[in-house]
Design goal:
Largest sheet: 5 strands, mixed
Strand content: 25-35%
Oligomer: single chain
Helix content: 25-40%
Radius of gyration: 21 Å
């Protein structure tokens, strides 16, 4: 009886340590940007158009600023002068609504896995020619893990228990995607 209580106490302690240090959620991070990729700053202003799903346009605004690729990034309606480019959301992140029933009942031992799409797809266009645009798709897919297995997964460099939008790899991934399209972006602004 004492042995069973000791084992149970050790499992509870281990579960608490895993939950405290690694979290009960594991999210896939964007692909790591190679160190050799550098995007030169562009002397352009960008106005972010409001999307019907406000968090998408808010995140695009925040992330574009974090890349430090453009001279100025602000909401389209806050700019006094016409911007060089207009950014418009094409597709946002997507997830499934799930209730981790078995994970909760098993106190985190049985994981729940959910397919998710992270990142944003957006277009850039000149205000005078909105039909000419460059679409930049920064989205990636991966499994969201819920339960104690997530703590173990979060030890790998490609996963996190934090929100992917606050991780430094997200603006680096966006900066790399902008760099791939920098020549097209500069042509649009002319």
């Amino acid at each position: 009886m004492r042995r069973a209580a000791s084992v149970a106490a050790a499992l509870v302690a281990l579960a608490l340590v895993l939950a405290w240090t690694g979290g009960c959620v594991s999210t896939k991070l964007p692909p790591a940007a190679p160190d050799s990729v550098s995007t030169p700053p562009l002397a352009l202003s960008v106005g972010v158009e409001a999307d019907r799903v406000e968090p998408f346009s808010d995140e695009l605004l925040r992330a574009l600023r974090a890349t430090r690729t453009f001279e100025r990034v602000d909401r389209l309606d806050r700019l006094a002068d016409a911007p060089d480019l207009v950014a418009r959301i094409e597709h946002g992140w997507q997830g499934a609504a799930v209730i981790p029933f078995f994970t909760v009942l098993s106190l985190g031992l049985v994981p729940t896995l959910v397919d998710e799409t992270y990142g944003l797809a957006f277009s850039l266009s000149a205000p005078a020619a909105p039909e000419r645009r460059v679409v930049i798709d920064t989205r990636w897919t991966g499994k969201l893990w819920l339960g104690f297995a997530a703590a173990v997964l979060n030890a790998s460099p490609g996963r996190t228990s934090a929100d992917w939008r606050t991780h430094p790899r997200w603006p680096a991934h966006l900066r790399r995607s902008l760099g791939v399209h920098s020549a097209e972006i500069e042509l649009l602004a002319r």
